[in-house]
Amino acid sequence: MLTLDEIGQLTLGFPDVTEVERRGNRAWNLRNKCFAWERPFTKADIKRFAGAAVPEGEILAVRVADLHEKEAVLAKPPKGFFTIPHFDGWPAVLIQLRVATRKPVHDALLDAYRWADGR
Known about the structure:
The chain has helices spanning 4-12, 43-48, 67-75, 102-116; strands at 17-22, 25-30, 33-38, 59-63, 81-82, 92-96.
């Protein structure tokens, strides 16, 4: 189980990362390019679950390089990784921190950081 505080510690360990507030939530940027952010569900998101279980706890959104990478991640997702209709066509995945494990989350953050760095 991870927390947003631990995500903050991980991301701020990368060079030149800053933590900012984005729409009232925490986000992490590299030179003003957001690569990870807290993503609570909106009422519309919850409605779209249409009776299916809504992931509980803190949710982290993490940028991926492109939609092909997103498909690859979600084809065999690490525990806690998923998406919702709001993110259709957008290169990012969601992570339910209470069930995700440290290594895949760290790897996703590092990949997102590299994307923001242009690598």
